[in-house]
From TrEMBL:
It comes from Cinchona calisaya. InterPro entries: 4Fe4S_Fe-S-bd, 4Fe4S_Fe_S_CS, Fe-S-bd_prot_LdpA_C, LdpA_Fe-S-bd, PSI_iron-sulfur_center. Residues 131-164, 168-197 form the 4Fe-4S ferredoxin-type domain. GO terms for molecular function: 4 iron, 4 sulfur cluster binding; metal ion binding. SUPFAM superfamilies: 4Fe-4S ferredoxins. Keywords: 4Fe-4S, Iron, Iron-sulfur, Metal-binding. This is 4Fe-4S ferredoxin-type domain-containing protein. PROSITE patterns: 4FE4S_FER_1, 4FE4S_FER_2. Pfam families: LdpA_C (PF12617), LdpA_Fe-S-bd (PF25160).
Length: 416
């Protein structure tokens, strides 16, 4: 006992000193986090989400319509709330919605900042965003080099094949798979299946009644009028609780405006809030590279200058990344209310838009936003699995720098 006491008394002060050092380092890092937010002028300058759409500086974080890793969703929501996003879009699943709201409130406990809207994403029919990859790892050749695992942007394919690793090999972690499909063509043995699903309309209607859900996004091909109508009618009065209804659709070229008009006519009679058209350029590809954003910009340019489109803000998505705003500026579409010239040289009369709202309301970032902050989350989780990022302010600081560099392209913060 004497020896034990003596050891404690020898080690005690050192341990105490180390703990104090760690705690003062954390306090210092947290101070840096707050300083970064205030230096950028975020709490004072960010506008209400509706005003952001009007001004063309709306930013939405897409957590992923199928991404259900609640620990990551919470941390992503915290980081991007501090960065001043206007909306956080997530899977229409109660636990995911709660994770988003937890992240938002944790951010607001660090610094008072306005709450972004919370949006849930659903589909009216089969859609790329609503699928999961699946395979049986016991069915895979033991000598497979596992290209599926290397290509997965979500770290959704389990296994530790690194030199010195455990050598375990697993299948797809369903809650992390967001359906990008990149693993499917790289499997040399054709072992991976894609399982598609449609969100249940009654469950969605219940979710929309929650006080912490502000918006819905309906993914549609634009070609399935009956499926869209059934979903819309099935949501019934739950729509009345919302501040925003978004419809996300791909570019179906000459059919786009007539499809939008049909969908709007279905919604119009009980649409009591603002609406938005999400122009999904190249789905789930923003993290691939610079050029991935081109299709969203071309889609935005065509829609901004199109006549006869139904009411609603326009917002880009699908391939959006840190180069999107540069592309919008090149096309003179960034935070402008008029088109004086379009890129192929055809002249249009100045002031051809009758609205005082920006032609493009804003940008949604998905894969790219998750990638830049995800790197920091992975590094934190390698030591602290399921950690709250605010408990590790040095990681929070890095994540915030990454998110601000992206959100700041649209928001034009003072230090961007
Ligand atoms: S590559 Fe894409 S589809 Fe395949 S497991 Fe990863 S997230 Fe899912
Ligand atoms: S690439 Fe195909 S065979 Fe190889 S581990 Fe992945 S799913 Fe199995």
């Amino acid at each position: 006992m004497a020896l034990s006491l003596s050891c404690c008394s020898l080690l005690g002060p050192n341990i105490h000193k180390t703990q104090l050092n760690i705690s003062s380092k954390r306090e210092e890092d947290l101070k840096q986090v707050k300083k970064l937010i205030t230096t950028n002028g975020i709490p004072e300058t960010i506008t209400s989400p509706h005003e952001s759409l009007q001004k063309g500086n709306w930013v939405k974080l897409i957590c992923g319509a199928s991404f259900e890793d609640v620990a990551d969703v919470r941390n992503l929501s915290l980081v991007y709330t501090l960065s001043g996003v206007d909306c956080i879009d997530c899977a229409a699943e109660a636990s995911v919605v709660s994770a988003v709201n937890e992240g938002i409130e944790a951010a607001r406990a660090i610094i008072p900042i306005r709450r972004p809207w919370v949006m849930v994403s659903v589909n009216d029919d089969e859609d790329l965003h609503f699928r999961k990859a699946e395979f049986d790892p016991d069915d895979c050749p033991t000598d497979c080099s596992r290209p599926c695992q290397n290509v997965c942007p979500a770290n959704a394919i389990l296994g530790d094949c690194t030199p010195g690793g455990s050598g375990t090999k697993g299948g797809v972690l369903a809650e992390r798979c967001y359906g990008c499909g990149r693993c499917i063509p790289v499997c040399p043995y054709d072992k991976i299946r894609a399982i598609t699903y449609i969100r249940d309309v009654n469950t969605t209607a219940e979710l929309l009644k929650r006080d912490d859900v502000d918006a819905i996004e309906i993914h549609t091909s634009g070609r399935q009028e009956i499926a869209f109508r059934e979903l819309w009618n099935g949501l019934g009065d739950s729509i009345n609780n919302l501040r925003l209804v978004a419809v996300s659709m791909p570019d179906i070229k000459d059919l786009t405006i007539s499809a939008m008009s049909t969908l709007y006519s279905i919604m119009e009679s009980n649409l009591r809030c603002i609406n938005l058209w999400q122009l999904d350029g190249r789905p789930m590809s923003g993290d691939i590279g610079r050029g991935a954003t081109r299709e969203a910009i071309a889609f935005g340019l065509r829609l901004a200058s199109a006549r006869g489109k139904p009411k609603g803000f326009l917002q880009l998505a699908g391939g959006t990344n840190a180069h999107t705003v540069d592309g919008l500026k090149r096309e003179r579409l960034f935070q402008t209310t008029t088109i004086s010239e379009i890129s192929d040289g055809e002249k249009r009369p100045p002031g051809s838009s009758s609205s005082q709202n920006a032609l493009i309301g804003g940008v949604a970032f998905g894969g790219y936003a998750r990638k830049v902050v995800g790197r920091v989350l992975s590094s934190m989780q390698s030591n602290h699995r399921h950690a709250f990022i605010e408990d590790y302010p040095e990681h929070l600081l890095k994540a915030l720098e990454e998110s601000l560099a992206l959100v700041g392209t649209v928001k034009r913060y003072s230090s961007s």
